[in-house]
Amino acid sequence: MNAPYVNDSIVSIEAERGIVGAILLDNSVFDSAGEKLKPEYFYSELCKAVYTEIIKQMNTVKQCDVVTVGMALRDLEMSDISALAQHVPRPYLIRRYCEIVIERSKSRLLAAVSNEITELSQDHTRTIEDRVDAAQSQLSKLIDEAPRDDWVSAFDGLVQHTQILEDRNSGKIKAWGTGLSDLDSYLEGGLRAGELVIVGARPSMGKAQPLNAKVLAADGWAEMGGLKVGDTLASLDGQPSIVTGVFPQGEKQVFRVTFSDGRATECCDEHLWSVNYRKWTTPKVLSTSEIRQLMESPEMNGRLWIDTPTGDFGCETSLPVDPWLLGALLGDGDLTQKTISFSKTADQILNLVRDSLPDAVRLVHAGGCDWRLSADRGRDAPGTWAANSNPLTNAVRDLGLMGCSSAAKFIPEIYMMAGRDARMGVLRGLMDTDGWVEKHGSVLFSSASQQLAKDVQALARSLGYWCSMREKATGYKKNGEYHPCLTAYVLTISGKDVHELFLFDGKKDRCATRTRVKRVAFSKIEASREAPCQCISVSHPTHLYITDDYVVTHNTALGMTIGLHLAEQHAVGLLSMEMTHSDVRDRMVAMMGNVTLSNVKRPDTGLQWDRVTESVERSRNIRFAVSDQSGLNINQVRSKARAIKRTQGLNVLVVDYIGLMTGLDPKQNRAYQLEEVSRGLKNLAKELGIAVLCLAQLNRGIEGRGAAAIPQLSDLRDSGAIEQDADIVLFVHRPIQANPELGIEWQSFSKLSIAKNRNGMCGLVYLNYQGNKTKFYGWTGQLPQKSTSSKRGDL
Q1: Do residues 456 and 447 touch, judged by C-beta distance below 8 A?
Q2: Does the structure show a pLDDT above 70 at 251?
Q3: Which of 335, 583, 671, 681 has the most CB atoms around its CB within 10 Å?
Q4: Which of the given ranges, 36-45, 457-466, 587-596, 679-688, has the highest pLDDT on average?
Q5: CB contact set of 92 (below 8 Å; sequence gap of 6+)
Q6: Residue 778, SS3?
Q7: How far apart are CA 507 and CA 430, in angstroms?
């Protein structure tokens, strides 16, 4: 079926036939190939067709062999398929054979891409930048995420995690009990092999922003909706940061968050922020909803702030004009004449100009306080000038600034996205020439150009400064009549190192050393619109990234409770696609050591090391493994589950959460992808004889039914197939989340609704939720009384 001769350097027919033949003889071999090997990697059309059919049959939990595959592929000769199973490698060589097939596939793709790049290099109808971009796009096809074998046992993970905590402190039975006795009574003893259990709750950790929100990437601003895994982002402190996960959140209510200096961004109510307050020794991670509630207090309103970036990002590239000089020309230069000029008398400013001029340009006194930046005539006869001989004028013209009046000036994009030193240089040139310092130390800048003022504001914010803008009417009186002039746009800049904005000593010395530093505080949060949203995870240790206007923003408990209890007697695996290993271990320490999560994350008064040691010792005796690989598809989940069952054993697989899983075909709509995922999880439970406990978010339809509403099956987000495939559906409902006006006695009260139970009764279970330990317990004592003052209905 293939050409009679193929190049051995880009094809290995023997390896392809060996893999397919081995799987036909022993389906367990698929575990070694299923996660990394795709049908398109095969060169042989026969092997590609057979392997595609194998995947279909394995995904429907069917055993497959030569006969079953041959019956399905009637267009192929049975003898050809049988021949594949005649000569197969030893099982331990399958992984190596897969590597060979993938390597040969990429070699073929590289050869094809090389040909395309060669053609691009000769296509002079396109700009070189366009051709380079197209070539990079072609090369990116060769890169995909390498599979990770990242299961880590609870004991090994927590032993490693104690170092992180120390750093923080110094700066086969019929049913498996869940640990919640009332729930177990409804489930006839607990979870069972082959069951798919869905745990649904209101969206709580979406961290989502609208798709058109801007995120600061390494090479400039990008839209949230256009980000992909592997994109490099700017970070708040210069440490490397890349996108590690992209998670669509669907249509959500969006809130506009405005800060004290006027900067603003949009996000959902569950979006997380790293928030400071003067009485807190360290920042707290709070949701938008929690911040809104705190702002209702007069004591905290206007006093909650976020950190600003250090500015250690940007493109380090060659710039046509010295940054300080460009800033000085924008601040006080005349760009409307053939020769650039400005008016200054301070010797230090004049020397700074001389030091930053190109070699072929000199400072020429034009009388009084006026100066011209003229080309050095060299050997030209007096009074003669070579056309276009001034390199500074040429560079400014190329930047689009020559001829700009004071009201039309702007900062070119290449400088706005330059490295920190260059951006600071531009800002210093602007402030040295056109900024000033008031008696009390406030630093101000004014311009008749609204665009220049906006650019200076963005520049200051990118360097970590507080910067507000206001409009000021200007004019003059003549013969007793007032004549309006251009509107002035006045910036006020504040920061702890505000004196660094100047090189000119005359202004730097005026900066008060004890001027009150203004914080980027939350000013207003208000609902703005409903829009499609998504959240991202980033590799930066703080999980923070930079969004609109240089705003720094952040980037399950029941599943963990049940999982850790089951792990005392059974093997449990947690696929944590939202939380990192470190986040999960924080919760394990809190839950097993009976420590508050805030003490683990922010040990203000000293970490309780005896409790930490207790949690580590307890983890020695449980079988609880965690993987934090994000964006998995059902084939990857199946492969990872088979692998851990074979090597460590597996009774219960906890998936956190289904909304973060991807479909095998990204071109399909989201509902179809989730149908594929839920069906695959159910089949996986049956195939491996395990229980799959999968977390799922609810849509916001419940919020329209009032605070008293208990979630229903129809509230499961995005797909009715989840309800259909599940054996058990549980809904968590915390009344105080829906109605914050309830009293403190409702703080820990939760309801667990058993909305579907294929093998038993449905009903309600009351639970005690200790949020500071992210842990659920069975409810004891009297139930809270219904609120008589609630404006949103009884609960």
Answers
A1: yes
A2: yes
A3: 681
A4: 457-466
A5: none
A6: strand
A7: 12
What is the 8-class DSSP label of residue 188?
T
Q: What is the percent of the chain where pLDDT is above 90?
A: 16
| Helix %, strand %, coil % of the chain (to 5) | 40, 25, 40
* pLDDT tens digit sequence for 51-63: 888 887 777 656 7
CA 291, CA 254: separation in Å to the nearest integer?
A: 15
**Looking at residue 485, what is its pLDDT?**
81
What 8-state DSSP symbol labels residue 403?
T
Span 471-520, pLDDT tens digits: 988 777 777 777 778 889 999 999 888 889 999 988 888 886 556 789 99
Over residues 613-623, mean pLDDT: 78
Here the tokens at position 567 are 């792990």
pTM for the predicted model, two decimal places: 0.52
Q: Which two tokens stand for residue 507?
A: 């202004």
Count of helices and strands (H, E) across the chain: 25, 31
For 5-64, what is the HEC assignment? CCCCCCCCHHHHHHHHHHHHHCHHHHHHHCCCCCHHHCCCHHHHHHHHHHHHHHHCCCCC
pLDDT in tens, 306-325: 988 888 888 878 899 999 99
Query: CA-CA distances (angstroms) from residue 589 to 158, 608, 617?
Result: 8, 11, 11
- Give the torsion sign (CA, 85, 88, 92, 93): negative
Helix residue spans in 141-269 (DSSP H): 154-169, 181-186
From the number of C-beta atoms within 10 Å of its C-beta (0-12, 13-18, 19+), residue 746 rates as buried
Which range, of 150-159, 291-300, 415-424, averages the lowest pLDDT?
150-159
CB atoms within 10 A of CB 286: 19
Report d(CA 650, CA 31) in Å as an integer.
15
Lookup result for tokens 């959140």: 249
User: Which whole number is the average pLDDT over 641-666?
Assistant: 77
Q: Report cis status (omega within 30 of 0) of the bond before 51.
A: no
Inter-axis angle of helices 557-566 and 581-592, nearest 10: 70
CA torsion sign for 240, 242, 244, 248 is positive
Residues 331-371: pLDDT tens digits? 989 999 888 988 888 889 999 999 999 988 988 888 888 89
| Full DSSP string of 678-716 | HHHHHHHHHHHT-EEEEEEEB-GGGGGG-TTPPP-GGGB
Sequential DSSP letters for 553-618 = EE--HHHHHHHHHHTTTSEEEEEESSS-HHHHHHHHHHHHTT--HHHHH--TT---HHHHHHHHHH
User: Three-class SS of residue 354?
Assistant: helix
* Distance of alpha carbon 100 from alpha carbon 10, whole angstroms: 10
CA 484 to mean position of chain CA atoms: 48
CB burial of residue 425 (10 Å; 0-12, 13-18, 19+): buried
Q: Between the CA of residue 399 and those of 166, 219, 389, what are the distances in Å?
A: 52, 19, 17
